[in-house]
Write a structure and sequence with these properties.
alpha/beta; Arginase, Chain A; 8-stranded parallel β-sheet; 12 helices; 8 strands; globular; binds zinc ion
Length: 374
């Protein structure tokens, strides 16, 4: 099935993982749409399934989360009346974007386990590329749920690579929002380099990811933040991405790349911010594939559910070297894709606030900082 037989692709899936992901309040019903569309194109029929049979237990979750946070999640799982305690909920970020729900403990255990399993499939040499559309929760903190994220599976994946001797891990975040949870977890280390391209505007969540945030102490120059404005289009995004990657890869020489493919930068997303189509994401993934390093591809944001399903299906096909018929195949959710029943995602009339002179100045700063990576 693969064009190159030396490349083995893994697809993270288990029925339990799909079930808990599909119940996540901020993206309820999204996981099944994604999985069924990929299945309708028969993309994972012959690939290696990365199984996730067990959620992490408390000991394993403590590698990142605080005891207080985990205790509270467990209490809610046992006693659902606790869910109405707004003060305690607030303390752990369980409000607005992240409402509490009864299966939280098990759910975060499965989500974290999914990206650990993906990392292990690469570490063991079983796969050189792994797709985990259930992962990508980049805002999760040690002791707080935040921005639709109850845990941070990416941090767990990176910790797994670190524990297994990897010491040059490149994390790339294509989500509309800044990858703050991941950056914060590794801001002091030079073993992980976090690159995030995101919308940066006063008052826009999470309000971090300024171009001058470049990492701290030993981690200096190991955080790269490219702030963007509303309405960015494919051509501009691709130009910026390529310029950074062309300079960064030879300089940093990573051993493994993790790419979060949050789909909320797509035109038509509920966030109404960027004006990207699948062309941008497919270009970025193709560029990363050309580097021929182990690659872990993750999901993330994406609040126009059918567009998110289309994008992640297209990326899955790209990884398998398959060309897809643009007509959505008949399957359980076929009617969701009306009126055109087509895989394409088109640009909107959203005004573009990105001035080439301004972003080129920022790029100059970023490229100069890349040269300073020791
Ligand atoms: Zn996002």
């Amino acid at each position: 099935m693969n064009q190159n037989h030396s490349i083995k692709v893994g697809y993270v899936y288990s029925r339990e993982l799909l079930s808990v992901s599909n119940q996540l309040p901020p993206v309820k019903g999204r996981a099944i749409l994604v999985h069924q569309l990929i299945g309708a194109y028969h993309l994972f029929d012959n690939c290696y399934r990365v199984q996730v049979d067990q959620p992490l237990d408390e000991n394993q979750l403590r590698k990142f989360h605080s005891i207080e946070f985990l205790n509270y999640l467990r209490q809610i799982s046992i006693d659902s009346d606790k869910m109405d305690d707004d003060d305690e909920n607030d303390q752990f970020g369980l409000n607005y974007d992240c409402p509490p729900f009864s299966d939280m403990f098990k759910t975060i255990g499965y989500l974290a386990a999914s990206s650990i399993a993906a990392a292990n499939a690469i570490i063991s040499g079983q796969c050189s590329i792994v797709l985990n559309w259930f992962g990508g929760w980049h805002h999760g903190h040690r002791d707080e749920a935040s921005g639709f994220c109850y845990t941070n599976d990416i941090v767990f994946a990176i910790l797994t690579f670190l524990e297994n001797g990897f010491d040059k891990i490149l994390y790339i975040d294509l989500d509309l929002h800044h990858g703050n949870g991941v950056e914060q977890a590794f801001v002091h280390t030079n073993k992980v380099l976090c690159l995030s391209l995101h919308k940066y505007e006063f008052g826009f969540f999470p309000d971090t990811g300024h171009i001058n945030d470049i990492g701290l102490f030993r981690g200096k120059y190991h955080s790269i933040n490219m702030p963007l404005r509303n309405g960015i289009n494919d051509d501009q995004y691709i130009e910026i991405f390529d310029k950074i990657i062309n300079r960064l890869i030879p300089k940093y020489q990573p051993q493994v790349i993790i790419c979060q493919c949050g789909a909320d930068g797509l035109s038509g997303d509920r966030m109404k911010s960027f004006n990207l189509t699948s062309r941008t994401y497919l270009h970025c993934i193709e560029k990363l594939l050309e580097i021929r390093l182990p690659l872990l591809i993750l999901g993330g944001g994406g609040y126009h559910h059918t567009n998110t399903a289309k994008l992640w299906t297209l990326i899955t096909a790209k990884v398998f070297g398959q060309k897809l018929n643009p007509n959505i195949p008949d399957h359980e959710f076929f009617l969701y894709y009306g009126p055109d029943y087509d895989l394409s995602i088109t640009e909107s009339m959203l005004p573009n606030e990105n001035d080439p002179q301004e972003y080129n100045e920022k790029l100059k700063i970023i490229l100069a900082n890349i040269e300073k990576i020791p």
